[in-house]
Amino acid sequence: MTASRLKQAALTLFAESGYEGVSLSEIAKSVGIKTPSIYAHFNSKEQLFIELLEDAIKEELAKLMELMRETEAKPPIDRIHAVFLFYADLDQITKGQSFLKRTLVMPPRHLEERLSRYLTAYEEEVTLQLTALLHGCAAQPAALSIDQTERLLALFYALIDGLLVEHKLYDSALYRKRQELLWDWLQEGIKRETGG
Questions:
Q1: Among 5, 133, 41, 122, which Cα is nearest to 81's?
Q2: Does the keyword DNA-binding apply (predicted)?
């Protein structure tokens, strides 16, 4: 039970202040235990952080797969739009997703290489889903080349990564407008590349 409480407290603190901005003593204090007691559950702050990252990736991937199931009957372009909104609509995300987004933008420097493996594996899962949807948009089966697919995937990731930064910079109305404009641009690119 204490391990779960520690993870929840750490998740909130890391999401708000990042890895460097949180000490083990703050985490312990927030659940009403002494700092040495943390070591009965986690070897280090780093281990706790990595476990939280793994949990956050699993949570977000599960939500994405649920979205894929819910939209299965829709046209591929509508499903891509749903995935775009899943990543771009940042007002209703969970603490785990907030923690994951913060880690993507500002990973702890000493953990960058290790975190990169987790995040790359996660992106590969997302890429599989997106690739299938992009090919589903093609006017003819197998009409989308590898280069075209890679261009569209690069554009998708660049847009959602850019929106992640913009979400913190702009008021809600301007953010929503930019989100819509970028979706229009992405949709045009998909139609042009796929002949759809």
A1: 133
A2: yes
